[in-house]
Amino acid sequence: MKYCAVIGNPIAHSQSPKIHQSFAKSLSLSLQYDKILATSDTFAEEVNDFFEQGGSGLNVTLPFKQQAYELADKVTERAELAQSVNTLWMEQGRLIGDTTDGEGLINDLKRIDFPFRNCQVLVLGAGGACRSILPPLLENQCSIALINRTKANADKLITRLKTLGELHYFSESFQPNLIINTLSESGANYLQQFFPQGLKGCDVYDISYGERAQAFLQQAKKMQAKDTRDGWGMLVEQAALSFKQWHGQLPDTEPLEAEHPQEI
């Protein structure tokens, strides 16, 4: 039996064990998948203990993705761009880190038929979640604008990633085809502030899911957004990519994507 886990704080709400165990069952693999609660002070020790006890793979959720990036001995190119890690494993005695968040988002946008390639995309936020999704969006020739409470933080991110494609701070002349919210709060306020005319013709996506995405997506609906979706599919898709890294098989995501824990 393989042993995997997810580490974060808080962690009780995590759907990762359900998702990974469902994947394992569908592929007839024997898997134990646990939740690990950590603090910033105990994170490194918990990671080391997990792998010393024979762990195969560790998912990292908030607020430790940057700390995981810093802890890893080696990271993938996309994790380096994002400066964020959500997937850890050992390779020849070295701790390897990757981020599957961005590819998970792209796969879900394709699944739900949200146009994004060569489109104008507004991303709300400039934190770790935003860093993970910007590179793959830019690789798909998106023209991206950022809005963030602290503009200086967004400007730093723009400076670091602008060689990848068209990335700038939001101006009122920017007319998005797609809005992606990476903020835990205040996203709904930004919609009201910057789009008083409404959101007709614009798709709206929140990378969180269920209750945490509700206020933002309900506001988008009130403003007549073309379509609204939360990030349940992204969670399932990024989990499938982590699963493949650890077990060598890519699971079918459709059955789980149909089991949304809470419809908006």
Automatic annotation (TrEMBL):
Keywords: Amino-acid biosynthesis, Aromatic amino acid biosynthesis, NADP, Oxidoreductase. One of its GO terms (biological process) is aromatic amino acid family biosynthetic process. This is Shikimate dehydrogenase (NADP(+)). One of its GO terms (molecular function) is shikimate 3-dehydrogenase (NADP+) activity. It is an enzyme of class 1 (oxidoreductase). It catalyses: shikimate + NADP(+) = 3-dehydroshikimate + NADPH + H(+). Belongs to the shikimate dehydrogenase family. Pathway: Metabolic intermediate biosynthesis; chorismate biosynthesis; chorismate from D-erythrose 4-phosphate and phosphoenolpyruvate: step 4/7. Residues 6-88 form the Shikimate dehydrogenase substrate binding N-terminal domain. Residues 231-256 form the SDH C-terminal domain. One of its GO terms (cellular component) is cytosol. Shikimate binds at S14, Q15, S16, T61, N86, D101, Y209, Q238. Involved in the biosynthesis of the chorismate, which leads to the biosynthesis of aromatic amino acids. Catalyzes the reversible NADPH linked reduction of 3-dehydroshikimate (DHSA) to yield shikimate (SA). The active site is at K65 (proton acceptor). Its EC number is 1.1.1.25. PANTHER family: BIFUNCTIONAL 3-DEHYDROQUINATE DEHYDRATASE_SHIKIMATE DEHYDROGENASE, CHLOROPLASTIC, SHIKIMATE DEHYDROGENASE. It comes from Pleionea litopenaei. NADP(+) binds at E77, G125, A126, G127, G128, A129, I207, G231. Homodimer. It holds the Pfam family SDH_C. CDD domains: NAD_bind_Shikimate_DH (cd01065). It comes from the Bacteria. InterPro entries: Aminoacid_DH-like_N_sf, NAD(P)-bd_dom_sf, SDH_C, Shikimate_DH, Shikimate_DH-bd_N, Shikimate_DH_fam. Transmembrane segments: none annotated.
